[in-house]
TrEMBL record:
GO terms for molecular function: transaminase activity. Its EC number is 2.6.1.2. It is an enzyme of class 2 (transferase). Transmembrane segments: none annotated. The lineage of its organism: Bacteria, Pseudomonadati, Pseudomonadota, Betaproteobacteria, Burkholderiales. Its cofactor is pyridoxal 5'-phosphate. Residues 34-395 form the Aminotransferase class I/classII large domain. It comes from Roseateles koreensis. PANTHER family: GLUTAMATE-PYRUVATE AMINOTRANSFERASE ALAA. It holds the Pfam family Aminotran_1_2. This is alanine transaminase. SUPFAM superfamilies: PLP-dependent transferases.
Length: 408
C-alpha cells in the first residue's frame, strides 16, 4: 500500500485555501461580482492599518535588512519580547528562550515537529483554529479534540479534557483569547488546565495572539505567569493587535520547567536553524510595536471601531429567529448557533455555499473548525458599520427564506 501524501491529511481542515465555497467565491469575483467577506481575519483588507511608527521604522531600516539574522532572530526584538514577558508576569524568560518566526503560524508548526513522534497525541480545542489539527497530523501526531462548552461562554470542559488524556498525550493547546469563539478564559479555568498538565507531565501550548484585543474592560492572563513547574510554549505576534498580518512577525517563548525538556529545546533550535531565520523586515517591526503607543486600546474602547462593530453584529444576529450568539469578550470573531429545530442543516458547507451563491456573503461553516455538528458558523466583524449591517441583513434574508423552504 502506498503511503498517503501529507497533503491529503489537510483535506478537511484547510478551509482558507481550498474547498467548494472558496472556489465559488473566487469564480464570482472573476465574474466581477462583489462579495462581502466575513470569512477571514485579514484586518488590512478592512482598512485597519498598522501604526504608522511601525511602518516608518521598517522603511528606515530596510536598507540594512537584506542579510540573514541569527536563527532565533535579532537581539533587539527578542529583548523586547523578554520585556513584554516581564510585563505579562512570566518569570525566568531570557533572550535564548525567545524565537522569532514568520508569524506565529510557522512557530506553531515548528513546535509540533520538534515534539511529536508517530502516534503521539495532542489535545486541541473544539472548535479550533484549523492550523492546530493540520500541523499535528502533518507532524505524525494524532489530534484529540476536547470540547469547549458554549453554555459556559465557550470555556474548555475540564472533565472532557481529563477523560481524553492517555499515556500517548504529550501536550495541550489552549487558544486564549479564542478563535473562533471570541472567548476569554477565566484564571480558574487556566489553573485547572495547568493542574492537569502538572499531573500528567504535559506541555502547555498557549496561543495568545489576541491578548490585547479585549472588550468591556476585560483583562488577559498569560498562562505561563500562573506556574513555574510546568513547561509552557507561548505564541504571540503582531498580526492582529498591530494590524500587521502580512509582515509575518511572530514569536514563541519557552518558559517554566525546562530541566526535562533539553531534547525538545534542542529540536526547536535545530528547526530554527534549518529555516535559517525569519524575515528581517518583520523582525524590525517588533521592538517599535511593543514599545510604542498601543493604538489597539482605542479600537476596543466602547467608542472604538472594533467594539462598535462587535456590538452591532451581536445585536443584529441575535434578533434573527433561531440564532443565538455568545457575545465575544475578545478577538475579532463570533460563532453563532443556528437552532437545529428551525434550521435543519445536514451539511453546513453546503449551507455556506448557498448563502454565498444567493446573497454574496462569505462565511466559514462551523465544521471547518472541527466542531462536531453542522449548527454553527464563524464570521468576522471587521467590515465597517455600513457593510456589516448590509452583510447581516443579507444573512437574515437568507435565513428567512431557509425557514420558509424547510418549514414543517
Amino acid at each position: 500500500m502506498k503511503p498517503i501524501a501529507k497533503s491529503a491529511k489537510l483535506a478537511n481542515v484547510s478551509y482558507d485555501i481550498r474547498g467548494p465555497v472558496l472556489d465559488k467565491a473566487r469564480a464570482m469575483e472573476e465574474e466581477g461580482q462583489k462579495i462581502i467577506k466575513l470569512n477571514i481575519g485579514n484586518v488590512a483588507a478592512f482598512g485597519l492599518e498598522p501604526p504608522d511608527e511601525i511602518v516608518q521604522d521598517m522603511i528606515r531600516n530596510l536598507p540594512s535588512a537584506a542579510g540573514y539574522t541569527d536563527s532565533k532572530g535579532l537581539f533587539a526584538p527578542r529583548k523586547a519580547v523578554v520585556h513584554y514577558c516581564q510585563e505579562k508576569l512570566i518569570r525566568g524568560v531570557g533572550i535564548d528562550d525567545v524565537y522569532l518566526g514568520n508569524g506565529a503560524s510557522e512557530l506553531i508548526q515548528m513546535s509540533m515537529q520538534a515534539l511529536l513522534n508517530d502516534g503521539d497525541e495532542l489535545l486541541i480545542p473544539s472548535p479550533d483554529f484549523p492550523l492546530y489539527t493540520a500541523v499535528v497530523g502533518l507532524s505524525g501526531g494524532r489530534p484529540v479534540h476536547y470540547i469547549c462548552d458554549e453554555q459556559s461562554g465557550w470555556t474548555p470542559d475540564i472533565a472532557d479534557i481529563r477523560s481524553k488524556i492517555t499515556p500517548r498525550t504529550r501536550g495541550i493547546i489552549v487558544c486564549n483569547p479564542n478563535n473562533p469563539t471570541g472567548a476569554l478564559y477565566p484564571n480558574e479555568v487556566l489553573l485547572e488546565i495547568i493542574e492537569l498538565a502538572r499531573q500528567h507531565q504535559l506541555i502547555v501550548f498557549s496561543d495568545e495572539i489576541y491578548d490585547k484585543t479585549l472588550y468591556d474592560g476585560n483583562v488577559h492572563t498569560s498562562m505561563a505567569s500562573l506556574a513555574d513547574d510546568v513547561l509552557f510554549v507561548t505564541f504571540n505576534g503582531l498580526s492582529k493587535n498591530y494590524r500587521s498580518c502580512g509582515y509575518r512577525a511572530g514569536w514563541m517563548v519557552v518558559s517554566g520547567e525546562k530541566r526535562h525538556a533539553r531534547d525538545y529545546i534542542e529540536g526547536l533550535n535545530m528547526l530554527a536553524s534549518l529555516r535559517l531565520c525569519s524575515n528581517t523586515p518583520g523582525q524590525l517591526a517588533i521592538q517599535t510595536a511593543l514599545g510604542g503607543y498601543q493604538s489597539i486600546k482605542d479600537l476596543v474602547a466602547p467608542t472604538g471601531r472594533l467594539c462598535r462593530q462587535r456590538d452591532l453584529a451581536y445585536d443584529l444576529l441575535t434578533q434573527i429567529p433561531g440564532v443565538s450568539v455568545v457575545k465575544p469578550k475578545a478577538a475579532l470573531y463570533m460563532f453563532p448557533r443556528l437552532d437545529p429545530k428551525i434550521y435543519p442543516i445536514a451539511d453546513d458547507q453546503q449551507f455556506a455555499y448557498e448563502l454565498l451563491a444567493e446573497e454574496k456573503v462569505l462565511i466559514v461553516q462551523g465544521t471547518g473548525f472541527n466542531w462536531n455538528a453542522p449548527d454553527h458558523f464563524r464570521l468576522v466583524f471587521l467590515p465597517n458599520i455600513d457593510d456589516l449591517q448590509e452583510a447581516v441583513g443579507r444573512i437574515e434574508r437568507f435565513l428567512a427564506q431557509y425557514r420558509k423552504r424547510h418549514s414543517v
